[in-house]
Amino acid sequence: MDGRASAMRPWLLLSPALATVTLLLVVPVMFILVYSFWLRTATGADTSGFHLDNWIEVLTDPFYRDILFKTLRIALVTTLFCIVLGYVPAYFIAMSRTGNKTLLLLLLILPFWISYIIRTMSWINILGASGGLNSLLLTLGIISEPMRLLYNEGSVILGLVHFLLPFMVLNVYVSLEAIDRNLLDAARSLGASDLQAFREVTLPLSMPGLAAGALLCFVLSAGTYITPVVLGGPRDAMFANLVFDAIITQLDWPLGSALSIVLLVVLGSVVLVYNRLVGVGQIAKSFG
Amino acid sequence: MDNTTRYERLLDRYREGGLPRRTFLGLIGASAAAYGVMGGPFSGFARAQDVKQVRFDGWGGVVSEAFREHAFNPYTEKTGITVVDGTFGGADEYLARIKAGQPGEFNLAHLSGVFDYARYHHQGLSSVLNEENIPNLANVIPALQDVFRKITDGTLSAVPYNYGTTGLAYNRKHISDEEIAEKGANILIDQAYKGKIGGWSDWKTRIWYAALQTGQDPNKIEDMEAVWDAIRTSRDTVLKFWASGAELMSLLAEEEIYVTEGWSGRIRALQDQGHDIGYFDPPGGLGWQECIFVLKGSPMGACEELVNFMLEPEVAIAVAEGQFYPPALDPNKVDLGKIVPSLPAFDPAGTLASLNFFEPEYWNSHEAEWAKQYGRVEAGY
């Protein structure tokens, strides 16, 4: 009897978390999955049942495949920019010996206090034809007419990098902060230059944070909807925009559900691969 | 004396201090009990007492502000019923929300066009208004009512409220009045303005204008492939397909674009802000009307009262002047003042014979196919 109680105890302790995950994640996803096998009729009503039409359409139509690949490409480019641009400030904050580290970290999370949409829209005032950058270049005589900087894939990636950079910096910072400084001193005492010490000690030890940041940036950018709407042009739709169009504009919830599941599976696969290689526990460390 | 009148008298006596609160509530409670036990003459009391608020959803921005200031606040002051004022980005998004919600959760909506009226009706969302409770309906332009009645077998599920056009808006610094008159809808695919053209990211409007660009009747398109090709040309010529009135105004005001289709009221708002933006309804240009739609499952008495209140000439005119769209009131019956006749799209005859509207049955019958195909074409296919 005691043995059975002992065996049950972990499950009892886990039950609130399991119930929460089941109610808020598993059940909604199951609803979406079931919906994906329904059909939308010509009047807009849904027909329940087990129909594979939506899945055949989503998996065989090159339109959806191409947009999915484009979405993954944009997410990958965004992630690479975040890695390059995020490492430097993270390194600077982590290695800072001044008492301003808290202030620097506060500045890092300051953008989170402003709405994501507002932050995204702020680029219109910077990059627009009569925005800050064009006005400055025109005033300095560097250009004779405004450059077209908005409503293209570049501005979408820029908006995503702006949104996601703090996630990367925080993750890398946590990894760098955890590195024992004695290791660096040891490397230098053995004749390594600063660059060699960084390449052989700091960089490898910060890789888990870099990988965790990369995963977050990739998944969040691949699932974005707002940024392409605000900063993209007609051809810059991403996969989440297709889900929106299917569910809202076309009122085709079954097709939108199938598209949602596809995105979920693709991004879930990325997380699984990451977990196999690095372990998702690294992400939790970034949030303390 | 009917139940409503009894209740209003009771309420008036209570408000004027002639009836103690306890007595008033006691009478209301007795009426509720009477209703619960045997129904009958006081049943209306119980229902009326249940209605503490109605929900209204609209387009937001200056339109919502005008409604709040001129209609909802005075209505709440008069009736004690709160109007919960929500917004939506479009009738598509709103329909998805209703579908996901509970019956009665959403009550009134400022819907656009006859197309949406028909669409909502076909979704089983229409109600039947008791027109006797809306005496101000008599002042509404008959032509605007008739198109609704045809869809709902002679009854109304909405009252027409205002109308406008989706015409060509252009920056006069770069495009002259003569040029816009000469080129008409084709200026939206004019390569001379590539990268300086905008358009509404709405499949119906895009198809309508593409039909004009290909010389077809938008309500009787014969060569759909030509229409899709025109939309592809438009897609590759525009800077941006905008998604909201605020974005439309921003793009024009910041001179990101020089020409686009635009909503007459929003363009008038820009003109009043001092921007030199012209507005032109091209031949075959698109007219639309907006209505206050009462959704099935709503508290009809309270909704009809609000609708009637909104149709009071002084309220409708004030809202019209606030949102820059002419009211649905018949100029032959109501003095619309000085500002309304100056609004874009205003028809002094009150017949709206010069405007072209979406033929609801035609557009609804193609909605599933065209909305989906438009999404593909806009995304690059």
TrEMBL record, chain B:
<keyword id="KW-0813">Transport</keyword>
<dbReference type="GO" id="GO:0019808">
    <property type="term" value="F:polyamine binding"/>
</dbReference>
<dbReference type="InterPro" id="IPR006059">
    <property type="entry name" value="SBP"/>
</dbReference>
<dbReference type="InterPro" id="IPR001188">
    <property type="entry name" value="Sperm_putr-bd"/>
</dbReference>
<dbReference type="GO" id="GO:0015846">
    <property type="term" value="P:polyamine transport"/>
</dbReference>
<dbReference type="Pfam" id="PF13416">
    <property type="entry name" value="SBP_bac_8"/>
</dbReference>
<dbReference type="GO" id="GO:0042597">
    <property type="term" value="C:periplasmic space"/>
</dbReference>
<protein>
    <submittedName>
        <fullName>Spermidine/putrescine ABC transporter substrate-binding protein</fullName>
    </submittedName>
</protein>
<keyword id="KW-0732">Signal</keyword>
<keyword id="KW-0574">Periplasm</keyword>
<dbReference type="InterPro" id="IPR006311">
    <property type="entry name" value="TAT_signal"/>
</dbReference>
